[in-house]
Amino acid sequence: MRIVIADDEPLARERLRGLLAEQRGVEVVAEAADGQHALHACAEHHPDLVLLDIAMPGIDGLETARHLAAFEPRPAVVFCTAYDAHALSAFEAEAIDYLVKPVRAERLAAALERVRTFAAGRDRTTPASGAGIGQRRSHLCARLRGSLRLIPIEDVHYLQAEEKYVVVHHARGEDLIEESLKSLEDEFGERFVRIHRNCLVARHEIVELRRAADGHVQAVLRHGKQPLEVSRRCVAGLKETLKHL
Length: 245
Known about the structure:
Layout: E1 2-6, H1 10-21, E2 27-32, H2 35-45, E3 49-52, H3 61-68, E4 76-81, H4 87-92, E5 97-100, H5 105-121, E6 139-144, E7 147-152, E8 156-162, E9 165-170, E10 173-177, H6 181-188, E11 192-196, E12 199-202, E13 206-211, E14 217-221, E15 228-230, H7 232-243
Parallel strand pairs: 1-2, 1-3, 3-4, 4-5
Antiparallel strand pairs: 6-7, 8-9, 8-12, 9-10, 11-12, 13-14, 14-15
Helix pairs in contact: 2-3
């Protein structure tokens, strides 16, 4: 069993390493002190299990778990935390187990057995977006040839569906993610508005609506290279939205 340990406390990581050294058939392939480095480690090492703290700087453990739900193959997640108040959120994130610090050897061993059962028989397919699990994510996760890029939501200008991918147009360029536009709209509907069946735009990015020479309505974006077409069915709702921006 290949394991990644993610915890911002060095002593906590050391304790888990020591406990795992006493277990047969396990290997710690990487450690991380925050969620972002944990995701990079998982993209590189493809672990079977992530032992994941919840309270970490930046991307916390719960959001990290939502991103891991989109990995293929999906690693099992066991939360290790000093607080038991997050238990419900942890299991909503489909964690295999929830260990309260200081982690006891027998509880860790039991969690590893549950992970082995998961690995042996559970269907690992799951909606890629992580939508509906706890609070909204603060980043989108683009997979890049064995690595990944985390894109802050506040940097996203618009999202455009292309076949089975969504193109994320953001402050540093473009990236592809394997999520559906509908799931992104469900998760981030307060931030983005639909202007077309294949396009969501950040509300603050829309400068104006204008009519093109061919009669189609276009949305002019603050950071867009060119206006985006607005479908007829979206025009009325979009005009109403703009009144309240």
